[in-house]
User: What shape does this take?
Amino acid sequence: MSRSLFTLRSILIQIVVFIVLLGVVEGAFRLMEDSFKKPPVALQLIVHPYPYIMFGADAGSGAAWLDIFSNKVVPSKISFNNYGFSETYDYTMNPDAEYLKKHGRKRGEKIVLITGGSVVHGVGATGNDRTIAGRLQHHLNRASRGTARYRVVNIGMGGWIAYQQFIGLSLFGLPLRPDWVIVMDGHNDAAVACVHGSGVTNPLGWPKMLNLSQGIGTASNRMLKELKKHSALARVVTGNAGVREPVNAPGVVFDEKDPEPRFRLRMAGLTFGNHDRQMEFYLQAQRNVLSLFGRSNVILSSQPVMYNNAITPAYRSAFSPGGTERDTKELVAALDRYMSEHCSDKCSSATSSQSLGYFMARSALKLNELASARQPLDRSRHILYVNTEWSMPMPENLRKPFFVDNAHLSDLGQDRVGELFAEVILSLESGKKFDYATFVRKRSQ
Assistant: This one.
């Protein structure tokens, strides 16, 4: 046998051995793959084929949440409908007579719509009946003792800002002619404009969507983008002769210094002062809800958080059952002072606590003013603001069991907020003023 044939045969044998070894390794890892799997610990949002939804949970059931305080994974049987909402029946954008006959108001029934971000959507809950919506329905029907039958419809979606919630209400809630509409939010609007880098009025992840629209959403596409930027040959071959495209979409920058990798792609030129511009957009969504549901009772509310306000403790004092006008003035002064000193600060995920603290406190004041101004103009229905912070204990050691992280609630927290809204609704329907101080005192015993 010639030396060249011997060498060729040796190479072929080595290639075959290498392929066999790869097959063995691949087979072994396929057998072991399940042992490496970890349950999801956050709401997995997908881009929906429906533009008005934009993104949401995938249809189906099953999830798991991470309780950061106990460092335990909480399994959940929560299920999502066709549009990704935490409901057991599918929604439609075209509610015909047959749909309304099946899912619309029944005789003797009262319908309550509730919307918000991931907290209302159900993150942290172990099942649909354990969400705020599920517990609200439970407490309403238990306390009413058969005098009325309540159905609570969940139109909350993870990641949504207030204006997306308004659109969701108009699509899926308006045809149901609700008796009550509850809006509980603030956290997402606090984050998108600055911390998440989406910019004022833009939904979560908008910079990434812009980059995807420019064809640079994957590593291979980014490489092609770079080639097209620097190579005439690449531009001619791809049909972009004469076009030198930027690495990022117009107005989008990559901030490699941001401590949170998820938010390094962001709109350019964002500063802390954007929060006040986002506030106006947020309030417009709330005003739109009041106008859209002109015959429904409306509760505007702020979602609770685990930790005290990073800007000022005056937030909780001002909205406590015993809060005074002096507390409110102190809160306003603290917020004004902080914005004056930091309005030009560059946005970054490092300022997330301050962004949340500022927006939640300022929006609570604005929502309370909005409800107080609108109620005297329309005595045919109830329009009010409810702050949920005091529905749970304030000492951290007693408060932690109600949360799985700073923003999201455990089953216990979901139940408490649902109970709060139920007591507000039942009190007002019976002609009484809701006594928040009594609610807080009884639940602390």
